[in-house]
Design a protein that fits this description.
Elements lengths: L1 H18 L1 E17 L7 E7 L6 E11 L2 E10 L12 E7 L2 E7 L7 H5 L12 H4 L17 E6 L6 E12 L13 E13 L2 E12 L7 E11 L4 E10 L6 E13 L2 E12 L5 E12 L4 E13 L21 E10 L1
């Protein structure tokens, strides 16, 4: 009997650390089909599948271990899901130590202004900022790997504990090589360090956020870039509204200014109407645009929703070539893009 008790005690001691760690798989699948028109006179319209119109597809692992004394060790390993392509784990991948002092993250993680527009949008990714090639080099909205502040390089981020609704985030990424694609900024393979700061405030139905991320080129200072954003959202009960302003500066001479206003109106029985209005203007002459999205969503459960959405952009000026998620980029400057799509989004 004593031997059995000793064996049970040893087994419990060995298994206790494993039991103290919680690990889970999570993700989002967003699939749609629609008609997309890039504005070209010939062959500009096509019917095709699309992904991530409401929420960015992803799959990930996350875990937490209680270290005692109020300390926790957390981790996230996350990748984007792309149809017909091999899985890439090129999203958030970090280790975190959290406690009464706040938290410290090490690894691939966002900085500063990243995702302020998503946090305030009342229409998910349908409220993503319009962008041009220059703008894409600064923001992460298009999924561009060179997105300033995006989780594209190892960094260190400290977040304060909640102080009467306020949290402050400070982050730094040491000099690293930027590898961009065709839509990337002109200074491909430039070595750059990044620093970001963000302040959030939450009080009941009110959310506020402001931040700035700076990329400092190790080469010419004219290649330095800055992203500044402020946002707010408020749930009025009958309707919820959100607003974001972003100023993207891909270099020392160019800038793009974006305004985004969104609203969500519950219709009952899981139905909701969403509206988005955006404006964009560049420092370049004759480069401005406005656009809108109307969408209807139907919650089938806590994890699954159906949606239908229509988006349109009016590019005003011979140099304007803004695009918006769900519409595709115009085939040439000055052309207008539009799209209609229906889809389903499921989270797990």
């Amino acid at each position: 009997m004593k031997k059995l008790l000793v064996a049970a005690a040893v087994a419990a001691a060995v298994s206790a650390p494993a039991m103290a760690q919680n690990v889970s798989v999570y993700g989002i699948v967003d699939q749609a089909i629609g008609k997309f028109d890039n504005g070209a006179a010939a062959n500009g319209s096509l019917t095709s599948n699309a992904t991530s119109l409401i929420a960015t597809q992803r799959i990930g692992l996350r875990g937490s271990e209680d270290l005692g004394g109020g300390l926790k060790a957390n981790f996230v390993i996350e990748g984007g899901l792309t149809n017909g392509a091999a899985q890439s784990w090129a999203r958030a991948t970090y280790a975190e130590l959290a406690g009464n002092f706040g938290s410290v993250k090490l690894g691939w993680t966002d900085l500063g202004t990243t995702n302020i527009d998503d946090a305030m949008s009342q229409a998910g990714n349908l409220g993503a900022m319009m962008t041009t090639a220059d703008g894409a080099a600064v923001t992460n909205i298009t999924g561009n790997a060179d997105g300033l502040g995006n989780d594209n390089a190892n960094g260190i981020v400290y977040t304060t504990p909640n102080l009467n609704g306020f949290t402050v985030e400070l982050g730094y990424k040491a000099p690293h090589v930027i590898n961009g694609g065709a839509a990337s900024r002109a200074q491909d393979n430039t070595t750059e360090s990044q620093i970001g700061v963000r302040v959030d405030f939450v009080s009941g139905p009110l959310k506020l956020a402001a931040g700035q991320t700076k990329g400092n080129s190790e080469g010419a200072s004219t290649n330095d870039r800055t992203l500044t954003a402020i946002g707010a959202s408020y749930d009025l009960g009958v309707v919820s509204v959100g607003y974001t302003y972003v100023k993207a500066e891909p270099n020392s001479t160019d800038s793009h200014k974006y305004n985004l206003l969104s609203a969500k109106y519950p219709l009952g029985n899981g139905l909701a109407l969403h509206g988005v209005y955006q404006t964009a203007k560049a420092s370049t002459a004759n480069e401005k645009a406005d656009g809108y999205t109307l969408a209807l969503t139907k919650a089938m459960s806590k994890r699954t929703s159906l949606y239908a959405a229509y988006s349109a952009i009016d590019n005003d000026g011979v140099n304007a070539a803004y695009g918006m998620r769900g519409t595709g980029a115009p085939s040439a400057a000055g052309l207008d893009a539009k799209a209609f799509a229906v889809g389903v989004v499921h989270s797990f």
